[in-house]
Structure to design on (465 residues):
């Protein structure tokens, strides 16, 4: 608690940058989503019924291509090590940051445009010229409800032959997938304002709205992709650091060299699996609050919200800014709702409630994490031996055989044994470290005099440089 100076409060890369992103990212997402919706509204939705549907069909390849273009552009711009080594997209600076080479921007733009054009051509044949697409869009709401009812009855009949215990387990595991997120709960925050927002919203031609469902499949998928590129990375980043320190003992991660922590594949899988589990069990609550409870939702509106949010998140990810997909999606939803032209089209009480949650999250998470850390570090340790420490100054021969870098030899090196009998490296000997393990059973360099470096089979001291 007494090391507040270790936090970067005032620097551009510190806490202030994160707090600023709470305001900038929703505003940017609102602007992008609102712009796309206004174009869609006046070019397609507000024309007469049949004209709007025809224009929507013709616009499908454009919108699908635009979604693919955005994703391809930012992925090419980000550039992995192999891609950067081949095309030199960016230069690595001394402080660890990356500077994009302006000369490659036309190439990146061309690649992204090619990907978008290719996917747009596929969408032309898959949607615009596909008779089944026409059949689906022309389907009435009554026909769709009848199909849903028939499927539900068929499923209920098939469940009669399933073991009751297995059926109960299945219902429990899929309970979060069978929730009504469309109907506004009377106990929801600002329920009256939410109902008012539904009443004042413009309702467009149903076949036109149904056409946008297919575009929304792409934008929703890409929103999940951007969610993994930023939010999941924010979550597993600290975990990767803790695992790296535990696994190697190397604690100097913020030196001038800009050392990066390697990310294990299983940690990425861990983050992906558990975000899916969280979505399946409790995601419906956020869908409900940020859906019709915030403003009127429709496929055309949802597509614009998602394209605005995912562009903002990918832009922030490219710049290394930790933003929240929820912040961006909330901003995009408000931006599209405002484009209805009526302030009553937004449940402002829900907006305030969500904003309050953003502010309260940081101090609450900090307090809980600090308390848990204090509890763990100050708790009695079963293997603790405070009278024996591992502050060592090894002789030059021993350091040479361990391949210790020269800049480390100048100050000395401290070694700590891990629980699996691996030697951990602590960069400098003046970092006070307790050896909490019982014995060291690893191999030592040939010719090392154990009497100079052991006491009761434990490292305690060695000759000076």
């Amino acid at each position: 608690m007494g090391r507040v100076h270790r936090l970067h409060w005032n620097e551009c890369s510190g806490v202030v940058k994160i707090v600023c992103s709470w305001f900038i990212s929703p505003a940017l997402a609102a602007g992008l989503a609102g712009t796309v919706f206004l174009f869609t509204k006046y070019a397609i939705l507000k024309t007469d019924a049949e004209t709007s549907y025809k224009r929507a069909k013709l616009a499908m390849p454009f919108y699908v291509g635009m979604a693919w273009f955005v994703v391809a552009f930012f992925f090419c711009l980000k550039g992995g090590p192999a891609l950067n080594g081949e095309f030199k997209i960016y230069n690595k600076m001394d402080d660890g940051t990356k500077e994009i080479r302006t000369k490659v921007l036309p190439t990146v733009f061309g690649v992204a445009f090619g990907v978008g054009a290719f996917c747009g051509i596929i969408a032309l044949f898959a949607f615009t010229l596909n008779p089944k697409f026409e059949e689906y869009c022309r389907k009435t709401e009554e026909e769709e409800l009848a199909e849903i009812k028939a499927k539900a009855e068929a499923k209920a009949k098939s469940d009669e032959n399933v073991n009751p215990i297995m059926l109960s387990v299945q219902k429990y595991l899929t309970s979060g997938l069978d929730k009504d997120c469309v109907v506004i709960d009377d106990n929801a925050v600002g329920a009256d304002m939410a109902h008012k927002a539904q009443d004042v919203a413009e309702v467009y031609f149903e076949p036109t709205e149904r056409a946008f469902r297919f575009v929304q499949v792409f934008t929703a998928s890409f929103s999940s992709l951007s969610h993994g590129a930023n939010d999941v990375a924010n979550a597993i980043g600290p975990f990767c650091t803790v695992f790296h320190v535990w696994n190697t003992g190397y604690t100097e991660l913020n030196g001038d060299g800009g050392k990066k922590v390697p990310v294990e594949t299983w940690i990425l899988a861990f983050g992906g699996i558990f975000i899916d589990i969280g979505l399946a069990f409790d995601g419906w609550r956020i869908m409900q609050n940020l859906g019709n409870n915030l403003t009127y939702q429709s496929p055309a509106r949802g597509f614009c919200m998602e394209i605005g949010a995912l562009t903002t998140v990918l832009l922030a990810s490219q710049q290394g800014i930790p933003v929240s997909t929820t912040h961006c999606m909330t901003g995009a939803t408000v931006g599209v709702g405002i484009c209805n032209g009526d302030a009553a089209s937004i449940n402002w009480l829900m907006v305030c409630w969500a904003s309050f949650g953003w502010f309260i999250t940081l101090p609450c998470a900090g307090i809980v994490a600090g308390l848990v850390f204090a509890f763990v570090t100050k708790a009695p340790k079963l293997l603790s031996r405070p009278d024996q420490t591992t502050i060592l100054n090894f002789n030059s021969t021993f350091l040479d055989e361990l391949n210790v870098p020269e800049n480390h030899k100048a100050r000395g090196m401290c070694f700590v044994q891990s629980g699996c009998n691996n030697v951990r490296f602590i960069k400098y000997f003046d970092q006070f470290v307790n050896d909490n393990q019982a014995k060291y059973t690893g191999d030592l360099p040939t010719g090392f005099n154990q009497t100079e470096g052991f006491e009761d089979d434990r490292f305690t001291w060695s000759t000076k440089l």
Confidence is low (pLDDT under 50) at residues 1-5, 383-396, 410-442, 450-465.
